[in-house]
Amino acid sequence: MGVRSSEHTFLPGATDEGAETPADLGELTRLLSAGPVALTGADGSVALSAGTREALAVLAGALHRGQAVTVAAHEPTVTTQEAADVLGISRPTLVRLLDQGAIPFEQPCRHRRLLLTDVLAYRDGHRSPR
To answer: What count of Cα atoms within 13 Å lies in the side-chain half-sphere of residue 101?
Structure first.
């Protein structure tokens, strides 16, 4: 996406020593989707939030199915081009949606800025059945 994100791609079937097997990834996906989970290490444990469990379940599930996964960290605000990329539409189409009031935005100077949460809420509320 835009220059304001950082990405890392994970490939299935990593050859690292001690790498997870597809069976391990399947079990991990099941556990993460089942409910509360805590990670335990040498220095203690931490309970995972529902959002973190969901993100890890998506990652583990895709790797289990043999898919590569790219994780991208984003700023909380995005440009119109970044928002259009997230929605899979052109920037002019996004601008029309903004002008119609479909997605809230701020325009502190010349450029519009959108909250990523608003863009994702619009995307999730307007998905067409496939």
So the answer is: 0
SS3 state of residue 104: coil
Between CA 80 and CA 92 the distance in angstroms is 9
- Report whether 80 contacts 112 (CB < 8 A): yes
Percent of the residues in the chain that have a pLDDT greater than 70, as a whole number:
88
4: which DSSP letter?
T
pTM (predicted TM-score): 0.59
Residue with tokens 């973190």: 52
Q: What Cα–Cα distance (Å) separates residue 100 from each residue in 64, 103, 105?
A: 42, 8, 11
**Run of H or E residues at 39:** strand 38-41
